[in-house]
Design brief:
Number of strands of chain C: 3
Number of strands of chain A: 44
Number of helices of chain C: 12
Structural class of chain C: mainly alpha
Strand order of the largest sheet of chain C: 2-1-3
Radius of gyration of chain C: 21 Å
Oligomer: heterotrimer
Distance between the termini of chain C: 28 Å
Order of helices and strands of chain C: HHHHHHHHHEHEHHE
Helix content of chain A: 10-25%
Strand content of chain C: under 5%
Strand order of the largest sheet of chain A: 3-2-1-13-22
Chains: A alpha/beta, B alpha/beta, C mainly alpha
Shape of chain C: elongated
Structural class of chain A: alpha/beta
Number of helices of chain A: 17
Number of domains of chain A: 6
């Protein structure tokens, strides 16, 4: 362990915990601060997450039950030998230079000693302060001293320093003297920090403050964050949906999307990205409890390979998806409930009553990072700049940890190396990266810059993937820069035109066999593999030169030297043949690409007409500005229903496109000079790779990760990682981030090779083994394999997570916990 | 100390405990829910004794049988909701196993109401309380298990 | 208005107020239609207005009755998340229809105004008689015996314009504010001619009428050297 690196992670939500774990697993000492007393942040409020309504919060813990890490549900807390958790601490400022930073921290106010607190709640009775309930401000009030997190058995009570008036009444009545003034009642400085990672998340829009849609008057108009508390088993109503105003039954609920986003009047020309999915989840959970649900939206943003299905599920379960924004919320005096006015189609205006109205809030337009966040040595996670979902936050956090370590190059970890796991096992200290696109390049470089050997395998004759030809200058430059650095780096061996044939060996001792550019066989030993094979544009089957795939829109069409090439009438059809069976997923990259192309065509040819037929414009974050710009620049947008897509016919003089303008309720026909189709991407190489590396692929052929939310870059096999579009369609910039994160995750894995591994959790009594291979089938982590030396099944110690499934399934009782005798198994104490 | 001693320490006649219910729960979701029930002062019957496993997927049917043979009147198995399992699919294995076990129990003279499998999420302290209380009542209606008197093991 | 196709498109695209308020930026979210009191009546919907502007069919819109169904209440604009100035767009469309689409009452009123300085076509002499009559009635009320109606008084602080109904069917209402002005000892005056306060150029979308209305007021102020304007409409 390198004692020179002392990392500070600010914020112990899911991002901060992930970054702290990555830094700690790579061998550094970490200080993790959190303003609240309980770690977990927003996730403490979320029982279930999209897109499968499961919870997997426990899965981000390293699969290691030797007692180093506290192995229990993270809602109860978490512990790690190399992470010092400092609750109730707010970081006010950071000064200094990388390697020698100082953080100014505040632990003010009164504190409750968790060792002495018995939870008798006498202090609550006398506290004079009333404050909005911290986890759900819209749901009511509580005292300044309040239960900090539902699950935490210790540290159960905390005192909000912002609300506490220091009157001391609680101290007087506490029978055990558990309440006392915090040490050093003022800011203190923490020095000699090597680096800092800011992972505090963003602030959310407050519709009550802005009286958005007139909601300021109505307690039954709440935010999506409040709703999570209402439906949570540990919320104020124990998961029973009740109206905040009178605790009456909720029969009908409405969700209003884009609260605080996509609104120029609020200076919010951005999309918060995941509110659509959150609302669908909440509506599905409410529907399970028998509510009628309606969702008011403009575009339903469900990008990627598995969010479209969630949308389909919502429709099947009877959630009404209404494509329009409501005007205002009023109280219906006759009905004692709230009423919304909305206009779902031209000339149609409706009023409808709801018991509960939920605003899907996004990032507050006024949110800013603190001034000290911009200084050198402080790395800000992407999740602290914009709203990300769980997988996105975890990826961004790992990437941030990696970036922090690389920028502090002196401290780079030495993974693998000489340390032996046991006499016979160790993890080979090198990584095989498959795929030379933005994700692969980024992963390779991140590893190399942290002194790890990399072999980068690419099947084409050049690096850079599709992104190197991107029409976006920033993307092209970024990928070119990555490519140049990778080609020059001494730790990276690049094999172009290489074809992988097989990969064998247990976890950490993989051997890949491939054919190099000249057709010669090569064997590459590696301790970890990162699969970043990417995707390819799906084909547009036509000979007609006027019908063009959006990915193929040749650069010369948009060249400033020949603007006439894109003059006249251009029509785009988005989601052409995609987002429905058999390709029932969203490829994410096409919408923003089409917008950029449309803007460019208009710029080059101000007289031209550009029309885009779309189902939903799927852009997120600041890419919303592309959509705003395209509209301002005169591009005409026509939404269509999936049942009634526009049809086209190539004629002699033009391509005739027929559709319907839903606002004017008219059929329209455009004689286009060219038709651009956006038909998405397909993961052509991924299923092959999945087969070679013995991991799963999805029904559409993407690489499957161990957990789509909580372990987005791990496969089920220890030591094999997946990232980039081959896993889930992403934009080039996101692929770069995923590569960095995958590299960091791989490094944590390689670092295990340096630790004293206690041996396998499970042992096999070889004399009893009949090689029936039931254990092999039962193991979800592919940690069982037949061992030719012993003639029995063996356990891959580094892959085994100690779940005991193989022990339960063996018909001969040949599998047992290592170090336990048979009789002890039945000592149920 | 083995189960038999454990159960013998609380025979109905001496301490007023009329039933023995063993709850085999997984470490991640259900045990957390049990802790939560404790923290939020939710009571469940004292006849229930919790035994913690890493995963319901590691519960061999032999353990369940052993519980009955050594005098348990009811066995409750609590695991994560399908899809939430820390080890991905352990609870699904438990489901299949228990389904296969029920006819065997019937043949052995143990009515299947004495065995319950329930999915309890980490936030569902209340649900755990309801399940354990409900299960104990059901077992009480059936009376003590016939195996108890036999001292078979 | 004699603009060619491209110029017309650009004018509409830039929109009244220009730039951000252009109809192009509309997303079709329907917030306007949800709050509009006229949605659904005779096929009206503010989205149609904006869409026709977006698709270069503004002249067609101007030739139709749609712009005249709008009450110009502004509920659409107030809530539009893209800050599209729909009310201004409606006005613009009204102007494009020319005399063919303007409702008869307003068309005649404008004719009267352009010819006689007020929407009723009331000669100045008759105006004088009417207001003097009302003034005389006021002097018969206790406390207002010394009330004198200032007409064409120079150097007053405030010039007042009138809604034409106040000299038509609702003369009595004149007294209410005259009493207040008298009690406050305010320095004010009515103009003897071109006293009209209701500028139907605002409704008709005809900028030249709008301009004319403003011009007459300015001329009156210059003539009478008043320092301020009280414009109740």
């Amino acid at each position: 362990m390198n004692q020179n690196v002392r990392a500070l992670v600010i914020g112990a939500g899911i991002s901060g915990i992930r970054a702290a774990l990555d830094l700690a697993e790579a061998g550094h000492s970490v200080l993790l601060t959190e303003k609240a007393l309980a770690p977990g942040g927003l996730l403490l409020s979320l029982d279930r997450q999209f897109p499968d309504n499961h919870c997997g919060l426990c899965r981000i813990l390293p699969g290691d039950i030797t007692g180093r890490v506290w192995n229990a549900c993270m809602r109860r807390g978490f512990g790690h030998p190399d992470i010092e958790y400092l609750p109730g601490v707010e970081v006010l400022d950071i000064q200094g230079t990388p390697g020698n930073l100082s953080a100014l921290m505040n632990r003010r106010g009164l504190k409750v000693d968790p060792q002495k607190c018995t939870g008798c709640l006498e202090c609550l009775k006398v506290c004079p302060v009333s404050q909005p309930y911290p986890l759900a401000p819209g749901l009511g009030q509580c005292k300044a001293v309040h239960p900090s997190a539902p699950h935490k058995p210790d540290n159960w009570l905390s005192i909000n320093p912002d609300a506490c008036t220091l009157c001391g009444k609680c101290m007087e009545v506490c029978p055990t003297g558990a309440i006392h003034a915090a040490e050093g009642n003022g800011p203190e400085s923490m020095d000699k920090l090597s680096l800092a990672v800011l992972a505090t998340g963003v602030e959310y829009f407050d519709p009550q403050l802005h009286n958005h849609l007139g909601c300021g008057h109505w307690p039954d108009a709440i935010t999506s964050l409040d709703f999570e508390r209402l439906i949570s088993g540990v919320g104020p109503t124990r998961g029973v949906l009740r109206r905040p105003s009178d605790l009456g039954k909720v029969r009908k609920a409405a969700w209003i999307q884009c609260a605080g986003s996509r609104n120029l009047k609020l200076n919010a020309d951005h999309c918060s990205g995941i509110c659509c999915m959150i609302a669908l989840k909440q509506a599905l959970l409410a529907r399970e409890k028998g509510m009628q649900c309606a969702l008011f939206y403009m575009d339903l943003r469900t990008p990627g390979r598995n969010w479209q299905k969630y949308l389909n599920q919502a429709q099947q379960k009877g959630i009404r998806l209404i494509r329009c924004r409501p005007h205002s919320i009023v109280r219906d005096p006759g009905e004692d409930s709230l009423r919304i006015a909305y206009a779902p189609a031209p000339g149609e205006q409706r009023d409808e009553n709801f018991d509960l109205i939920v605003f899907s809030v996004g990032r507050d337009p006024g949110y800013k990072l603190p001034a000290w966040a911009g200084q050198e040595g402080v790395i800000v996670t992407k999740g602290s700049e914009r709203v990300l979902d769980i997988a996105g936050s975890l990826i961004a956090a790992s990437a941030a940890a990696g970036r922090a370590l690389r920028s502090f190059s002196d401290s780079c970890a030495q993974p693998g190396g000489e340390a032996y796991v046991s006499e016979h096992e160790h993890i080979h200290p090198s990584v095989l990266v498959v795929g030379g696109g933005p994700a692969g390049l980024s992963a390779a470089l991140s590893l190399a810059e942290q002194k790890t050997q990399v072999v980068l395998v690419e099947k084409k004759d050049h690096l850079g993937g599709h992104a190197i030809k991107s029409m976006v200058p920033e993307v092209r430059e970024q990928v070119l820069e990555l490519r140049d650095k990778v080609q020059k780096h001494p730790e990276i061996e690049v094999l172009n035109e290489a074809r992988l044939q097989s990969c064998t060996g247990p976890a950490g001792r993989f051997v890949a066999r491939l054919l190099d550019a000249r057709g010669h066989k090569r064997e590459v030993k590696h301790g970890a593999a990162i699969l970043a094979c990417g995707t390819n544009p799906s084909r547009v089957e036509t000979e007609d030169p006027r019908i063009i795939n959006v990915f193929d829109l040749p650069e010369k069409l948009l060249s400033p030297d020949a603007p006439g090439n894109s003059s006249g009438r251009t029509v785009f059809i988005l989601c052409s043949g995609t987002r429905r069976e058999p390709a029932d997923y969203c490829s994410k990259v096409c919408c923003q690409l089409a917008l950029r192309q449309a803007i460019e065509i208009r710029r080059l040819n101000p007289e031209s007409e550009v029309t885009i037929f779309y189902r939903d414009i799927i852009v997120q974050g600041d890419d919303e500005q592309l959509y705003t710009r395209a509209r301002s620049d005169g591009v005409c947008f026509i939404p269509y229903l999936p049942e009634k897509p526009p049809v086209f016919q190539a004629g002699e003089k033009s391509v005739t496109v027929q559709g319907v303008d839903p606002y004017l309720k008219e059929d329209l026909q455009i004689e286009a000079d060219r038709l651009i189709l956006a038909s998405g991407v397909i993961p052509e190489s991924a299923s092959d790779l999945a087969r070679i590396f013995d991991i799963q692929s999805t029904e559409h052929g993407f690489l499957k990760e161990a957990d789509v939310k909580y372990r987005p870059l791990d496969s089920v096999r220890a030591g094999i990682f997946v990232c980039g579009s081959g896993r889930n369609p992403v934009l080039a910039g996101e692929a770069v981030l995923e590569g960095e994160a995958a590299a960091q995750t791989a490094l944590s894995w390689l670092a295990r090779g340096r630790r004293n591994w206690p041996g396998s959790f499970v042992r096999v009594k070889t004399a009893l083994c009949s090689l029936c291979a039931m254990c092999l089938q039962a193991c979800p982590f592919k940690a069982r394999y037949p061992d030719e030396h012993t003639g029995a099944m063996a356990v891959d110690a580094l892959a085994c997570q100690g779940c005991g499934a193989c022990i339960a399934v063996c018909p001969n009782k040949a599998s047992a916990w290592a170090g336990q005798e048979e009789e002890e198994m039945h000592e149920l104490e | 100390m083995n189960t038999q001693d454990n159960l013998k320490r609380h025979p109905g006649e001496e301490t007023g405990q009329d039933l023995n219910v063993l709850a085999l729960v997984c470490n991640w979701c259900t045990y957390t829910a049990a802790d939560l029930a404790g923290v939020t002062r939710l009571k469940y019957p004292t006849q229930v004794k919790l035994i913690r496993f890493m995963c319901t997927g590691m519960i061999d049917v032999r353990y369940i049988l052993r519980c009955f043979l050594e005098g348990a009147d009811g066995v409750f198995i609590g695991g994560c909701h399908p899809g939430d399992c820390h080890y991905l699919s352990g609870n699904l294995k438990a489901r299949v196993r228990i389904k296969g076990l029920r006819p065997v129990l019937e043949m052995a003279g143990i009515p299947e109401q004495r065995l319950r499998l329930s999915w309890i999420g980490a936030s569902e302290g209340k649900k755990l309380q309801e399940e354990l209380t409900g299960f104990t009542s059901e077992v009480r209606k059936l009376g003590p298990a016939s195996f108890r008197q036999m001292h078979l093991v | 208005m004699n603009l060619n196709d491209a110029q017309l498109r650009e004018k509409i695209a830039r929109g009244p107020g220009g730039g951000k308020n252009s109809p192009r930026i509309c997303l079709g979210c329907g917030t306007c239609a949800a709050g509009c009191p006229m949605t659904g009546i005779e096929g009206f919907d503010p989205r149609i207005i904006v869409r026709m502007a977006q698709t270069n069919r503004f002249q067609e819109l101007g030739n139709s009755v749609l712009p005249w169904l709008c009450t110009m209440c502004g509920r659409c604009e107030e809530s539009c998340p893209m800050d599209v100035r729909i009310v201004s767009m409606v006005r613009e469309a009204r102007g494009m229809g020319g005399n063919k689409t303007i409702p008869e009452a307003i068309r005649r009123g404008i004719e009267m105004f352009m010819a006689h300085g007020n929407n009723l076509g009331l000669p100045d002499e008759d105006f004088g008689f009417i207001v003097e009559d009302v003034a005389e009635e006021l002097t018969e009320e206790p406390g207002f015996e010394d009330f004198v109606l200032p007409v064409d008084k120079e150097d007053a602080r405030l010039l007042f314009t009138l809604h034409n109904k106040l000299v038509n069917t609702q003369n009595e209402d004149l007294k209410h504010w005259w009493k207040i002005l008298h009690a406050a000892e305010e320095s004010w005056t009515l103009p003897g001619s071109s006293w009209e306060g209701v500028n139907w150029g605002l409704f008709s979308g005809q900028d030249e009428v709008l301009q004319a209305g403003v011009d007459t007021i300015v001329k009156n102020m210059e003539r009478l050297k008043t320092r301020g304007l009280m414009y109740p409409e």
